[in-house]
Amino acid sequence: MNRLDAQAIEEIAVGAAVLGSGGGGDPYLGKLMALAAIERYGPVLCIDPEELQDDDMVIPLSMIGAPTVVVEKIPSGRESGQAFAMVEKWCGQTAQATMPIEIGGVNSLIPIVVAAERGIPIVDADGMGRAFPEMQMDTFHLAGIRPYPVSLVDEKGNRMLFETEDGLWLEALMRSATVTMGGTATTAGFPVTGAQVKTHAIPKTLTQARQIGRVLLHARRLSRDPVEQLLEVTGGWMLFRGKVVDVKRRTEGGFVKGTARFAGTGEWQGRQWCLHFQNEFLVVEREGIPVATTPDLIAVLDTETGMPFTTERLRYGIRAAVIAMPCHPAWRTEKGLETVGPRYFGYDLDYVPVEQRLEGGRP
Amino acid sequence: MTYRIGIDVGGTNTDAVLLDDRLRLVTKVKVPTTPDVETGICEALHRVIKDSGVPPEHIGYAMLGTTHCTNAIVERKRLNRVGIIRIGLPATTAVPPMTAWPADLKAELSPTVAMVKGGVEYDGRMIAPLDEEAVRAACQKMMEKVDAVAITSVFSPVSREHEERAAAIVAEEMGADVPVSLSHEIGSIGLLERENATIVNAALIMTARTVAEGFRRALEREGIRARLFFGQNDGTLMSVEYAQKYPIRTIACGPTNSIRGAAHLSGCTDGVVIDVGGTTTDVGVLVRGYPRESSVAVEIGGIRTHFRMPDLLSVGIGGGTLVRVENGRVRLGPDSVGYRLVEKGLAFGGDAWTLTDTAVALGVMKGERMPLLDRDRCEQVYRLMVAEVEEALDRMKTQAGPVPVVLVGGGSAMLPEQLAGASEVIRPDHFEVANAVGAGIGQIGGQVDRIYSLADQSRDQALAEAEETARADAVQAGADPSRLQVVEVEEIPLAYLPGNAVRIRVKVAGPFKGCASPF
């Protein structure tokens, strides 16, 4: 058990951006909201899943919508508490804890708002181990847990409660409701038990985000190569260092799809890479040969600071180190790959774990 | 012949150049920057006129790139009291205005804050109608308590209606002479960063007026009746009237001027510019004659804004940087004697050991007298300095191979003829006043950065509308509409939204109205 104070929140925000794999939204706003909450109510307890009782009720909390809208139409601050209370009311039970459903990006920090407000702990775990764009893309879905009820609240005070058949329906219905609400909303639920969190959540991801953040914030002060240090703490692989020479984007069904071409620099000079992205970075190819794919995490880092780039910020001339980090084993199962593998996102590729692809040396 | 004067105020020196109508340098002067800035400007102006022998009535244009606004923020001095109106309730209350501002800066602005209902969604639907009564009430609260007002409305880059209506109410309630800064004219998507930039802009209005008046007086004293322009941080100019409305756009114009000046003087349009001043060395990248822009959120005085700035790497190496030996190891800076180099440096008879003194002792450059320094120690210091500059060059390059490097700034005389990573080291004539040249050669710029929905118009229509807005911005800033050219177009689709909303940014630039020369 540890306390999340202002320092911890700063570190988690940086780490969450790396684990966002280019998506998940800028954690900066989540950081400000979390900082405001703990300034008002005091630090939040962060507990290990093992500290939960099996029959405890845990309600995850997150924001849903377009990152560009979230940074413009900031929440009122009341949504989290309202969304949480709706699920509790439906269940007729008070929650013992909250947790992030998605550690990557802004959603890592949103549950801190409710935890601070209610004086309940946040569980050091999440349902993705990274960021993914759709509601059903979490490890509870893989475990077959029916995702209901889920509440959706906007800043105007509009509230909805969803009892859907499965995660795909939830995604479809919530997405269209969110668009009508103005492109962003806050969602609580579905409730899970302590036992389910222990068995199906990805543990220690807040701690991991915090470690990554500490490395990057510290590395900048010590002027050591931040990327190398990041590989050490994440068990990640360096794919290449290069410069963006071209970025193409197109919008399909509300999602931006694109490709960035990189020319290698330094010891990678003379080679070309393609990075395919939608909301997150999904596939890296070297001259047509895939070297890393979703669900493994791909991060594009500033070569100087180690700070991650989001898909939106990719532009010509950026120099970056592109790294891959192995995803949680749950994603490497048949159902996991069906849900978030390369084919789900429309790439005609088989998934091969990044460490296998890279075995025997660099790509 | 109509001449133009370019002046650039740096941390150490104030430089002035006189250019002819083919943008050739006629005269240059360098005087120490004074604590009040204005005295230095007057002195530089006076000397450049006197030295050139050009009759004052032949000077048609005067361009000033100045650090006044940056200094005001950094030193937290001479700032306006700001009234802040945020339009967007019931949204946005989770993070009120000025969250995460440094406490001392916030206090300096003695802000009066009001958050009112209004604003629009990403697609232009209203979040709530503008609460006009609340805006009026805010005005009553601000009366006599604020010097300027900053208005920010949710999604004003999509619809500016509520900001403009609120500005009209402020004019009715508080008088038309209260300066009002509207966020959609300052920044783009990202409420907090745009609001921060708008508040900073409002806080700088008086500073900008003071500078403009001071500059005008200085010119009058020399008998010059020129049109005045201020340098913007994207390498273009704006009219003095425009600058008083948008003073934030002058922040960081100094390094930009140096990069533009370096390109003009050397003829090199793509490469790296190393600008060595008295306190720092700025390394920037030249892309087609303009500075490469930074892709990260920019901090001004500890406040996060998403203001477009040149992509620079600053290292603490300058002509006035102090050299120390501690436990047998040499240490460079980070402190500098700055503009007092000419009184404090050993080479000028003072008692401070600076990098300039080191270079003089090694015979790399000349000084008034030879400092008595140990040669081995000086060589050690010099190697350390060159290594730091070479590292900065390496970090800014966009390719592994060597690139052309242009050295500018008064302190660059310290640097050697060869640098690791440089295909050639160009030291153009007049390198020491490249910043003033950059100010003098500037064209008028205009830009737009807004969200367009492609649901009810084509991409081409949206692009045309954006270009039209950018052109109008440039014309307002003083440009000749018939000679404007598009410098840059960028479009970014927005994720997770239906209806193909797209963010379009267009930048245009061209000669100013009435300018006879083709530049």
Automatic annotation (TrEMBL), chain A:
It comes from the Bacteria. Residues 8-163 form the S-Me-THD N-terminal domain. SUPFAM superfamilies: CV3147-like. Residues 167-354 form the S-Me-THD-like C-terminal domain. This is DUF917 domain-containing protein.
TrEMBL record, chain B:
It comes from Polycladomyces zharkentensis. InterPro entries: ATPase_NBD (IPR043129), Hydant_A_N (IPR008040), Hydantoinase_A (IPR002821), Oxoprolinase-like (IPR045079). This is Hydantoinase/oxoprolinase family protein. Residues 194-368 form the Hydantoinase A/oxoprolinase domain. The lineage of its organism: Bacteria, Bacillati, Bacillota, Bacilli, Bacillales. Gene3D superfamilies: 3.30.420.40. Residues 4-173 form the Hydantoinase/oxoprolinase N-terminal domain.
